[in-house]
Every structure is written in C-alpha cells, then in structure tokens.
Design goal:
globular, Rossmann fold
C-alpha cells in the first residue's frame, strides 16, 4: 500500500474532455465552467436558472445548455443525461455542484426549509450519481466529483440544516470511492471553505479566509491534476476545521463559539 500515491488518476489536460456540470449557473459552478472551457473541455451545463445558464453557455463556446431541477429525481437527470450521451457518445466527468443554503439556527428550524435543503444538497447529489454510475461503469472509466463544504467537518451556528446535508456527502463520496475506484471510475470530493457567492452573502458574520469563485475553480482544477480524493481549500482555514474534527468536544465547542461569536 503506497499512501502517498494519488487516489485517482490525475487529470491535467482538459482538451476534449466531456464534462457534465450540474449546478453551473452561478458562483463556483459558473466560474468552473469558464475555467474548464478555457482549457478546452466540452461542456454540458445544467441548472434551474435557464436565463443565467444560457448566458453562461454563450461565454463557453460549444457548450450545451440543459436546464434541469435536481429536486425532481432520477428521471429528471435521465431526461438531461440521454441527450448528452446521444450528442457525445459518453461522459468523462460529472460534477455535481448544485446546492442551496439557508441560514438556520436551532430555534429557527422549519421542516419545509430543512427538507428543501436536503432535497438539493443531498438527494440531488445521490440522484445524480445514480443516473450516471451505470454509464461510467459500462465505459470502464470516468469520474464523479461531488461538491460538499467545510461545514461538513463540524457543527456550526446557522448551519443546522446545511451542515448535516453536506456532512452526509462525505460519507456518500467515501462509499462511492470504495465501490467505484477498483472498477476504473474516479471519485472526487470537493470541500470549499467560504466562497463569495449570493448564498454566502446571507451570512451575518465575518467569514474567515473568504475567497472568490474563480479562486475556488482554480483549486478544484488543481485537485483534479493531483488526483486527489478530497480537495479542500483554502487550506489555511480548512486545515483548522479538519483539526476540530479530532479535538475533544470540550475544546472544539468553545473554539467554534469564540470564532463565530455564537
């Protein structure tokens, strides 16, 4: 066992790589689409916001704009997947980036809002993977990338729904990797810290190590190039969050309260 070897085949040359990017219309997704287009990838772009999606596709010459709603289940993914396969004859990389965020403290929990968060952040990813795994296995190659969050590492104030939805993705990605990597399909977990998007703009606290979507896109591409299983960034912040996972709660809870002002 060589623990320093890449867990996935490094992907450095994106020219001609067929990428289906779900959750592409804004934020990290839009920045990643532009970054991959500049590197020569062939893109199928999906999101709920058709107007933004069409505008983004215009910035990424040759890309396919395929609006969809991930909360509609596997059938919705299949509705978009089949034209992509018909156009390309296969898919090399699927990036499941669709996500939502509503700040929510424990005393603000609303069942409908919690279910809406889980439907996008968790079930939307599981349905997406379900729809493409058979194709990737039949090809004997390809990659799935799941965009999670640093909020998965430890409970945080305002993240009573968002945090659990992202924490579940870590376990799901690990399970996928163990099953799929031996059969030639790479699995990548992306764990961003705070990125300046319309979703994080809702936060009512100072966000440490805040970065721009373009920086996040560059980090994700670098993670593919290294063959990482997990790509987390910015490391000056995410490394501290990872440390919280292994500290006794008697230490981690006070540190989180102090850092967030909760």
């Amino acid at each position: 066992m060589r623990i320093l070897e890449p867990l996935n085949p490094p992907l450095r040359d994106w020219r001609g790589v067929r990428v289906w990017l779900v959750g592409a219309s804004t934020g990290i997704g839009a920045a990643l689409a532009r970054t991959l287009a500049a590197r020569g990838a062939r893109l199928a772009l999906s999101a709920r916001d058709e107007e933004r999606l069409v505008a983004l596709a215009a910035d990424c010459p040759g890309s396919l704009a395929l609006p969809m709603d991930v909360t509609r289940g596997v059938a919705e993914f299949a509705r978009v997947r089949d034209p992509v396969l018909a156009a390309w004859g296969g898919i090399d990389v699927v990036i499941l980036n669709a996500g939502t965020y509503q700040p929510m403290r424990a005393w603000e929990l609303e069942p409908d809002a919690v279910r809406s968060t889980l439907a996008v952040n968790l079930l939307g990813v599981i349905d997406g993977a379900t729809s493409v795994v058979p194709t990737l296995l039949a090809q004997g190659r390809g990659a799935i990338a799941i965009v999670g969050s640093v909020a998965a590492y430890h409970g945080l104030p305002q993240a009573a729904a968002y945090g659990p939805s992202k924490a579940a993705l870590v376990n799901f990605a690990e399970s996928l990797y163990l099953d799929l990597a031996p059969r030639g399909v790479a699995v990548h977990l992306v764990s961003p810290g705070f990125v300046a998007t319309r979703l994080t703009a809702q936060n009512r606290f100072a966000m440490p190590a805040l970065i721009q979507p373009e920086d996040a896109a560059a980090e994700i591409v670098a993670g593919f190039a290294r063959g990482d299983f997990e790509t987390h960034f910015p490391r000056r912040f995410t490394s501290i969050m990872k440390l919280l996972r292994i500290l006794p709660y008697g230490l981690s809870f006070p540190l989180v309260r102090r850092a967030t002002g909760a």
